[in-house]
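Hey all, quick one. A colleague (J.T.) asked me to put the NAP job into the tracker so the inputs and the structure tokens live in one place instead of scattered across chat threads. No bug as far as I know, just bookkeeping. Sequence used:
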Amino acid sequence: MENKFCLNGKVALVTGASYGIGLAIASALAKAGAKITFNDINPELVEKGVAAYREAGIEAKGYVCDVTNEEQVNGMVAAIEQEVGVIDILVNNAGIIKRIPMIEMTAAEFRQVIDVDLNAPFIVAKAVIPSMIKKGGGKIINICSMMSELGRETVSAYAAAKGGLKMLTRNIASEYGEYNIQCNGIGPGYIATPQTAPLREPGHPFNSFIIAKTPAARWGTTEDLEGPAVFLASAASDFVNGHVLYVDGGILAYIGKQP
Ligand code: NAP
Ligand code: GCO
């Protein structure tokens, strides 16, 4: 059974993985045996990321690439194939959020979120699938969200993108399953990372709100995502396709603690 979770000899690309959820997922894939490549839009952060992986004993290869730029993405994928090998595992992790009431949000702001959180996973998946087909299969993991299922004030663009990402996940599974490509999602709950730092400010009402909405009665940590990521990246999930695995401490199952 252990072998089913083994990633020895596999090449993984985790987008936006200099820190946060991406770094944790990439580190978990490395601990399971995968060779790690990652990108960030910011060269300094790529360097910082390489140092962080090295500190954890992981020799990761970092690339500067804006995932919304198809030319840059195609160049990065070609370079990885040249320098490391064909990508067996893609984790579409890079993402942004803008918390703005919808009627105050500009169309440009809305488009920017859609571009990073939905268009980019399409662009990167499109870039890696042909080589996965030639190689006989692959794994794609799209990082979805509670907002793939639920809405809330101020996150209209993000929810639209993450809802779309759930359906893109299902469509890639439908279209490429016959080539032994499994495309699934991970839907993290509320995880303590830089992205949610504003919501975790001391005294912020959102803190107690999330604790009351989560049966586990705590914020998630990036470590909570490591096992689910290895599962979906490994042979253990070869007959799991088009699924979004929610790693949320039970939020989606729970009406919330009575105040
Ligand atoms: P984060 O701390 O904000 O990190 C996001 C990463 O994406 C950063 O490395 C960022 O790089 C990179 N990125 C953003 N735009 C990019 C672009 N155009 N090209 C390349 N890289 C880009 O976020 P996180 O909390 O780790 O979240 C990671 C993923 O999980 C996101 O898709 C997020 O929506 C999702 N998620 C997060 C939570 C949560 O509670 N934290 C829950 C559910 C889902 P820069 O720093 O250079 O911008
Ligand atoms: C928010 C949060 C969430 C989390 C995550 C939950 O403002 O509601 O940022 O969107 O990032 O997506 O799954």
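Adding what we noticed when we looked at it: The CA atoms of residues 14 and 38 lie 5 Å apart. Strands lie at 11-15, 35-40, 61-64, 89-92, 138-143, 181-188, 244-247.
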